[in-house]
Amino acid sequence: MQATMHVDEAAAEAMGVDAGQLRALADGLDRAYVATGKLPHLRLLVSRDEKLLLSHSSGAARATGEPLRNDALFRIASMTKPVTSIAFMMLAEQGLVALDDPVTAVLPEFAGLRVGLNGQTLQRPMRMIDLLRHTSGLTYGLQQRTLIDARYRDLGLDEFHQKRSSDDFIQTVASLPLEFAPGDRWNYSISTDVLGVVVERVSGMDLADFFAERIFQPLDMNDTFFDLPDDRVGRMTDAWQLGPDERLSLYDRGERSSWRRASRFRSGGGGLISSADDYHRFALMLLRGGELDGVRLLRPDTLSIMHANQLPGGADLASLSSSMFSEADYAGVGFGLGFATDLATGEFFWGGVFSTFFVIHPAERTIGILMTQHFPSNTYPIRREFRDGIKASIKSYV
């Protein structure tokens, strides 16, 4: 299927970016992943100094063969987490909540939390910062490591669309033991789902309403939401999953997507739909230190704290992680307040389980957005190849 690609060669050369390298990056990923059938489709954006330099779309949006459109909609899964983290920090800047606050100040259901199957008492309370940086002791059922995450699987706590209300979700989580004492280790988890409920209770708003009124409308992100509107169904992609037999099968059909049904529970950890262009606007706001087109969501110093490494002792994920799965490599990678951060380059980034990904390089003023719909996201090294390809295109990059 014919790819659609635009490279702004004049702008790229003016900004010190090799336009040929950008074209080669998109062509190479398309040949390696879409042409071979490993991925159903691919949508790429690369910008520098807020100028879009590369736009690429290839593959089929659906099993019925429609070409992927530039305005296609994707399930961004854990790329929801940075949005929820921004929402919390907006409330923190208002003085309504603080990073050091115990989680029980907002979620009193957590007052009886214990650690491990033997029910050890907490030596210190779980704090809001623990939810933001995944040092809470919570887990994901998909980790498939312990009896505790097995219980998460049994209860469906990882599911995007739950029948529980937010209050029911918190009550269920509070009934389970933590994997470890808060602050002791790092474990990719439902922490940001819990954080989403914190945002709801502190703001007094449904999370979808908070996102729409306080983040998406101000940023002109008109294609980002929890529930797929009827008038956007035609743009919704199919999502695919890789089975034990190494064959792809449909996970969720675009025209009959589960995201069309309104959910009682808003997954702040993974429930959003978005487009590449919309998420690029969100990334521009992050790159600009919390402001875009005259609209400021956060102060620059707050954003700097968020994408700096916040792991205890300045450690990397390799030394603190107990996760079997996350959306990042571990060696040389720290974690801030909602993002992973490369300790060598300062890039910050995250992805979603359907293989979506974004990366921001503050020093080089670049943004990369990668969208596709393949579960799980750790099957192929495309994210690393995308990051490396962007850096290789920058003529001055050392």
Structure description:
The chain is of the alpha+beta class and 398 residues long. It is built from twelve helices and 17 strands. The strands form five sheets. An eight-stranded antiparallel sheet has the order 1-3-2-16-15-14-13-12, sandwiched between helices. Strand 13 (340-342) and strand 14 (348-351) form a beta hairpin. Helix 2 runs antiparallel to helix 12 and helix 3 runs parallel beside helix 7 (191-203). The longest helix has 16 residues, at 19-34. It is globular, with a radius of gyration of 20 Å. The two termini are 36 Å apart.
Count the DSSP helices: 12
- Biggest beta sheet attributes: 8 strands, antiparallel
Q: Could you give the distance between the termini?
A: 36 Å
Oligomer classification: single chain
Characterize this entry briefly.
29% of the residues lie in helices and 16% in strands.
Summarize this structure as a short list of keywords or feature phrases:
globular, single chain, alpha+beta, 3-stranded mixed β-sheet, 8-stranded antiparallel β-sheet
Q: Topology, pairings included?
A:
Elements (H helix, E strand, L loop, with lengths): L3 E4 L1 H6 L4 H16 L6 E8 L2 E9 L14 E2 L5 H13 L20 E2 L4 E2 L6 H6 L13 H9 L10 H9 L16 H13 L3 H10 L22 E4 L5 E5 L20 E2 L1 H12 L3 E2 L2 E2 L3 H7 L10 H4 L12 E3 L4 E3 L5 E4 L5 E5 L4 E6 L2 E2 L6 H12 L5
